[in-house]
Specification:
The structure is a homodimer of 508-residue chains. By secondary structure, chain A is an alpha/beta fold. Chain A is built from 17 helices and twelve strands. Among the domains of chain A are: 84 residues; 260 residues, Type I PLP-dependent aspartate aminotransferase-like (Major domain) (Aspartate Aminotransferase, domain 2), CATH 3.40.640. In chain A, β11 and β12 form a beta hairpin. The longest helix of chain A is centred in the C-terminal third of the chain and has 34 residues. The N and C termini of chain A lie far apart (52 Å). Chains A, B: It comes from Takifugu rubripes (Japanese pufferfish).
């Protein structure tokens, strides 16, 4: 290296007048670190994680912030240390989250986004990105099945916020006065969603309840609808609960159907749900944060039949489409509603002197003023893959999950959490070590089985060989929830996972 | 270049088994484009923007999404086109937003964040980033003045969301039952903030009102407090309005004092406000999205005296500290409240089998489940600059704005919108072209003056030489609001701005 970064500090880089070469050299050093990390991440011989407990990790490097500056050499060391202890989310055997993998064009696009360093406020400050958001949202609405891709939408900071924005729109649509007068002008409202979303499930996946709490509707107004054994909402129960709520004086205003539940990957029957929503005049939202991407697959999109009847749809390309985090879209059927719901002023009075078409200014469509640029990575990946490339990627992940399902459904030592082929890539199962396998189905067995997945998971993390999540649900003790969204995964990786579970769990 | 990217597609890159070299070469090509853009961005000979109207821009490239994949050559072309029409937000003469500039270490950190591609969900999936958030929030609370840096906090997707989270906490603190029962269990609430934030100001800066609308409190419950000529909230009016609200049966629950208003850069008198908040038992929030960073400056932090008495503080390092977008922190004085307000379940029941200290899992502290990793760029910049480096950067921007103020306050053809030295880097002024300069102060003159700033701005964008924002406020016609947050700006750039305004506006 031509510079001694041990003697160079940040102020020596651009915008310093002679900073060009130093800057390029420094950034190139960082890029070299990143490129090495990327290559390593895809290497199956590398650990998914070099795990340390928080207190250990705190001591493995000097993470404290100081008054004095560090040299650029120190900065490079910090970059290396940060990556050393990071999870390799691109690793072909990282199955822990709904968002996994690392797409090279998506990554390049995100680097460009960081470099452009602007926000989605107005056309004035982000002309290209605002246009690309417009083009992409239209395409997504077209895929949903809304005529000519008409409607509205926005990219938001994640599924929970997208769902909250949808709830906000539904309430405003029914009671526009709520914007000025608040909930005191509105009767008690009721929202409905599957028990698999809010009652039985893992603790983080509560966006509908969290939204209702934030919006002043209250979590008690979110009503749990029964689901069948495979996790699909039962429409008859929805109708019964709507009637019950009305009888109690609540006004049903919002049904959130789920396309791809977090744990089971279940798709609610959207057509039947939409019939009920229409009958009772209730806003139909489809939370397709996880499953919306199946709309890109000719083979699997039937699972979302009826989505075109929804009033709004959440669809997170950062999950099943492997777009780098964050990338979540809310699509809305009615035009103009987002603006009416969120704008706080007769803004065009002020802005009529701007010299371009103001319909491209999006700052009034949501609660946020500025928004992070999340569009470019999706747009560039779409361009690089084409719609058919996304389709192939999604189909392959579903094929892998079917392979896993077929492999373990009759294998000794495994029990499926629910019967039937997975609808999404979720495969939920218990592994029963030999010591439990032949026990009678008693409380004692349940208790022991409950401890199996956590111990195997802890061992996986300590060895760093693979990662998969587990959780209990309702009265079901801890089980593994395997999901596949990583385009790097192969049949061999699925085989490896099963071998690893057995290796790490057989003594339990 | 050793590969013909015209014949290579995304599936040829990693994770393809022989994709290493192609991947590194492709990413290197992208990096070369970015490095050239960066060097160009800091070059004063380059345009800030190559402006085109939306309909023109739509036709300047093929932005549509296709079914079929594009070659990597096409992808590189798209990257170049995107940057060609982007705003150069790092340009030393880009003054348009509160967020400007591009820090080389911040950029490197953001590239690393994209590469690590994880989220702030749990320690399990983001061990280092979760620790760094913990370390940095503690340091920020320490700087606010909370003992030993105690308290809580989170990085959120921007100031509007941070402010909404604060309002949510304030409401929950006073009426914890609102979480389950909604607003029907709560009396009518009243929130208070300066007229410079919600009544007079530019249309996007309505986060307090937007928050109140979303939370079901209603915009009518947000009460405008009078400000003095320089834009500071008048405490006596706050007290009067609180009493008035109580008399009308409202329960005052939230005062949002502003540290650095968007337009004037005014700092509300925090000590006097906190006295009133304590007297009436109202949550005191300080919206320091813009001005919070002055806490890093020994010379200027007196402007926020009393901030340590606040219950919550919004502080956006992506503004005055020039951290790449997005980076917004909400700091909260009371420990445990965020969790109680936002968690939806007796989650530890489920999670006691996790094998590490769960206090590092942040997914329950906010409405969001996953969160984008916004911490690393701030942490790495802090390391590279030290606290004293941020201080020097902030002091320099304030010095530049004082230079601008001194330069134009008595200059022919200028009128200041308010008197006195700027408190922040905001300098608000009218430029009066010779044709208006000597007119009497009539409606006709006002009308003509109102048109001056928009025309000059449009010309600036067409020439691409500089950008500065303008707006009306209350009964004041369009004026320029100059802000300086770009560490690349110099005294010469300020001189240039004035020359450019005069050059482009003299014929009006």
């Amino acid at each position: 290296c031509e510079f001694d970064f041990g003697r160079i500090f940040l102020p020596h880089l651009l915008p310093a007048s002679d900073g060009d070469t130093k800057t390029m050299t420094f950034l190139q050093e960082v890029v070299d670190i990143l490129l090495a990390y990327i290559v390593e991440s895809f290497d199956r011989e590398t650990k998914v994680i070099d795990f340390h407990y928080p207190n250990q990790l705190l001591q493995m490097n000097n993470w404290e912030l100081q008054d004095e500056p560090a040299t650029l050499d120190d900065i490079l060391i910090s970059c290396r240390a940060t990556l050393k202890y990071a999870i390799k989310t691109a690793h072909p055997r990282y199955f822990n989250q709904l968002s996994t993998g690392l797409d090279m064009v998506g990554l390049a696009a995100d680097w460009l986004t960081s470099t452009a360093n602007t926000n989605m406020f107005t056309y004035e400050v982000a002309p290209v990105f605002v246009l690309l958001e417009y083009v992409t949202l239209k395409k997504m609405r077209d895929i949903i099945g809304w005529q000519d891709g008409r409607g509205d939408g926005i990219f938001s900071p994640g599924g929970a916020i997208s769902n909250m924005y949808a709830m906000l729109l539904a309430r405003f649509k029914m009671f526009p006065e709520v914007k000025e007068k608040g909930m005191s002008s509105v009767p008690r409202l009721a929202a409905f969603t599957s028990e698999h979303v809010i009652c039985l499930t893992h603790f983080f996946h509560f966006s509908i309840k969290k939204g209702a709490a934030a919006l002043g509707i209250g979590t008690e107004s979110v009503i749990c609808i029964k689901a069948d054994e495979s996790g699909k909402l039962i429409p008859a129960d929805l109708e019964r609960r709507i009637l019950e709520a009305k009888q109690k004086g609540f006004v049903p205003f919002f049904v959130s159907a789920t396309a791809g539940t977090t744990v089971y990957g279940a798709f609610d029957p959207l057509i039947a749900i939409s019939d009920i929503c229409r009958k009772y005049g209730v806003w139909m939202h489809v939370d397709g944060a996880w499953g919306g991407s199946l709309l890109m697959s000719r083979k699997h999109r039937w699972k979302l039949d009826g989505v075109e009847r929804a009033n709004s749809v959440t669809w997170n390309p950062h999950k099943m489409m492997s777009v780098p985090l964050q990338c979540s879209a809310l699509l809305v059927r009615e035009e103009g509603l987002m603006q009416n719901c969120n704008q706080m002023h007769a803004c065009y009075l002020f802005q009529q002197d701007k010299h371009y078409d103001l319909s491209y200014d999006t700052g009034d469509k949501a609660l946020q003023c500025g928004r992070h640029v999340d569009i470019f990575k999706l747009w560039l990946m779409w361009r690089a893959k084409g719609t058919i490339g996304f389709e192939a990627q999604i189909d392959k992940c579903l094929e892998l999950s079917e392979y896993l399902y077929n492999k373990i459904k009759d294998r000794e030592g495994y029990e499926m959490v629910f019967n039937g082929k997975p609808q999404h890539t979720n495969v939920c199962f218990w592994y029963l070590p030999p010591g439990i396998r032949y026990m009678e189905d008693t409380e004692e067995r349940k208790k022991r089985l409950h401890k199996v997945a956590p111990v195997i998971k802890a061992r996986m993390m300590e060895y760093g060989t693979t990662m998969v999540s587990y959780q209990p649900q309702g009265d079901k003790v801890n089980f593994f929830r395997m999901v596949i969204s990583n385009p790097a995964a192969t049949f061999e990786d699925i085989d490896f996972l099963i071998e690893e579970i057995e290796r790490l769990g057989q003594d339990l």
